[in-house]
Amino acid sequence: MASRQLQQQQEITVDGQQVLVVRSARRTRTITADQVAGTLRLRVPVRLSQREIEDHARAFQKKLSRRAARRPRSDEELAQRARALSTRYFDGVPQPQAVSWSTQQHQRWGSTTSTTGTIRLSARLREMPVWVQDSVLVHELAHLIEPGHGAEFKALIAKYPRTAEADAFLAGVSWADRHAD
């Protein structure tokens, strides 16, 4: 009973994400955060204002996003991301049967076998920014709709807003690889 009086729990929404706030009378200055079943949990002093809590929640959400972005995606996470991108940019039309990382691809960033619905991304992309990985996934998903690189294909990949930026990034990496000595 005494611990209930020392702590109060409240669920709030910050920038569209649920946050569990645990206010503690024992806590005087420190604020900690962790994730519980995908929900951010903040432990804060009782005296903190709602605005201060929201500011801390945003800061911790940003930190957790950066940490997650640095961790390489598994094959299953890559497949989930491909399905999400298919839904977002192509109304869910291309449905890849398998999406995986490939250690065999050294010249290409990605490849698609349209007859089997299989997409493979070069394992070299694992350490690159997520938006670059997403661009390559969108490119390969577009091949499940249009096999060539003509005007229709270019219109499909242009739906991803960072296509040109990702192409430039990958061109720079390729150039550096060719000129490394």
UniProtKB/TrEMBL annotation:
Its lineage reads:
Bacteria, Bacillati, Actinomycetota, Actinomycetes, Micrococcales
Please list the residue ranges annotated as the YgjP-like metallopeptidase domain. 4-163
Q: Show the PANTHER family listed in the entry.
A: UNCHARACTERIZED PROTEIN YGJP, UTP PYROPHOSPHATASE
Task: Spell out the InterPro entries in the cross-references.
Answer: UTP_pyrophosphatase-like (IPR053136), YgjP-like_metallopeptidase (IPR002725)
Lineage, top-rank taxon, reads: Bacteria
Query: This chain belongs to which protein, by name?
Result: YgjP-like metallopeptidase domain-containing protein
